[in-house]
Amino acid sequence: xxxxxxxxxxxxxxxxxxxxxxxxxxxxxxxxxxxxxxxxxxxxxxxxxxxxxxxxxxxxxxxxxxxxxxxxxxxxxxxxxxxxxxxxxxxxxxxxxxxxxxxxxxxxxxxxxxxxxxxxxxxxxxxxxxxxxxxxxxxxxxxxx
Length: 145
Prior knowledge:
The protein is mainly alpha-helical. It has five helices and two strands. It is globular and about 60 Å long. The chain has helices spanning about 30-45, 55-65, 80-95, 95-100, 115-140; strands at about 25-30, 75-80. Residues about 1-5 have low confidence and may be disordered. The chain has one domain.
């Protein structure tokens, strides 16, 4: 490698990814949030499936009920921003021991980065909502809705 770089070794650099924050609110159900949680948990896992995923899902459902008001008049949905989802998930992941255990690099140094997990969930939900809104706006402009 040193030869390929012209005899010099590059200096190690830390890459910091900015956290995309957005305060626009969209309607989300618990299933929206937990579905994105299940998807990203599997995607980020170094294994086929994170340990105790079913238990983590059940615990997350209960914790969401205690931390977010899903309005029964609104068919069980809540108006949430990317920021609110991210902040809530980061807090809950620290409180739910099954999920928090995924962040421990034992026994083989593999783990799930819970900060990245929370960001991926919040960003996925927000981007889906933004794309849906854009499509709906375009349909309205074309006079089809």
